[in-house]
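pls design
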């Protein structure tokens, strides 16, 4: 049996997945809690920063106590509602206008602007974020075995880009805190020290391109005094034990703040993200998310939620869905196969992942348009 066909018997992660090692019992290091030490340390630090934020006096240097990164997804919409109506913080809702934004996410942002009493600001830099994404997608095939989250490098890079834009905005406006609504599982993998965020970006892209992408401004972050730099807080750290995506979406829809499913608020690069993951690491983009859910259910049969943003149904045959999705994604990327057949397969697969019929059809169309999106951005596929 090929190593990449060997799967963790608990969560189904493959032996070749970046950062994943199976023991003699065919159980992966995530299921064995090998990351528990890192998890505890990171939660301890983020807890401390969030406690500082909650206790902080109003910002004496400006009109806002925090810059809230607002994407229009369910996590940030849910927490922005709390910041405005419960936390009592003077909040600047900061949206980076990602050129790959889903129309559904944009609709949610409009709903929030209409219903929430917050100050909204929109930032953008289409040319540089597209330049960065071309660099990531067009890199040579990475060396294996890889590190944890390498299969999500394009997504992580995009997120880091607009986090740095937010850091620079807060730094210039002397806003002391940046609220970032990562779900509880993502918190483990995200850097919360702004100087280290910038250093990590330099490491990924090299000093020349990193400086070019931000017009030389990020060097200021590296050399500023600690008390001049904003701190990143993760609001969901306070509710990590009862994080429930279904409940959150239901509450938002009841308030008229959310009009789609989590899958539908993804960016238009979602198909290309799957292509990248399959091509380089032989896994679907959401494999860690789905495996997190499978792991949780295997430990407690009554436990039916994941610490990731996306929840998967108990009945999902994850290996079978992954293999079928891989086949259709690689065929679309190569310009092969029948479009209508691909559409039917994609709709069926996403409905299996608990997406509504309309949502599944919406997502399927984005996959069918993958080659056009790639051509527009100068990304090579096939």
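designed seq:
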């Amino acid at each position: 049996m090929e190593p990449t066909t060997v799967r963790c018997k608990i969560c189904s992660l493959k032996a070749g997945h970046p950062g994943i090692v199976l023991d003699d019992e065919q159980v992966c290091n995530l299921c064995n809690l090998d990351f528990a030490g890192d998890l505890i340390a990171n939660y301890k630090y983020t807890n401390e920063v969030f406690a500082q934020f909650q206790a902080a006096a109003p910002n004496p240097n400006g009109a806002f106590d925090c810059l809230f990164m607002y994407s229009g997804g369910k996590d940030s919409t849910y927490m922005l509602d709390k910041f405005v109506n419960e936390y009592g913080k003077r909040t600047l809702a900061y949206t980076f206008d990602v050129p790959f934004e889903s129309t559904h996410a944009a609709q949610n942002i409009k709903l929030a602007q209409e219903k929430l009493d917050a100050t909204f600001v929109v930032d953008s830099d289409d040319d540089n974020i597209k330049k960065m994404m071309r660099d990531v997608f067009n890199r040579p095939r990475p060396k294996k075995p890889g590190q944890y989250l390498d299969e999500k490098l394009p997504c992580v890079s995009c997120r880091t880009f607009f986090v740095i834009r937010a850091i620079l905005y807060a730094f210039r406006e002397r806003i002391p805190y940046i609220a970032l609504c990562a779900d509880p599982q993502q918190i483990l993998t995200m850097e919360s020290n702004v100087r280290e965020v910038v250093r990590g970006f330099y490491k990924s892209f090299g000093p020349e391109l990193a400086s070019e992408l931000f017009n030389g401004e990020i060097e200021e972050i590296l050399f500023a005094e600690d008390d001049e730099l904003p701190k990143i807080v993760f609001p969901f750290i306070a509710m990590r034990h009862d994080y429930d995506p279904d409940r959150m979406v239901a509450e938002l829809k009841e308030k008229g703040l959310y009009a789609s499913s989590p899958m539908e608020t993804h960016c238009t690069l979602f198909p290309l993200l799957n292509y990248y993951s399959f091509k380089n690491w032989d896994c679907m983009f959401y494999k860690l998310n789905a495996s997190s859910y499978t792991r949780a259910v295997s430990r407690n049969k009554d436990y039916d939620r994941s610490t990731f943003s996306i929840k998967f149904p108990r009945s999902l045959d994850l290996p079978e869905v992954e293999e079928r999705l891989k086949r259709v994604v690689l065929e679309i990327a190569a310009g092969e196969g029948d479009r209508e057949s691909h559409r039917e397969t994609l709709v069926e697969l996403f409905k299996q992942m608990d997406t509504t019929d309309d949502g599944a059809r919406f997502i399927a169309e984005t996959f069918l348009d993958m080659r056009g999106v790639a051509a527009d951005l100068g990304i090579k596929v096939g």
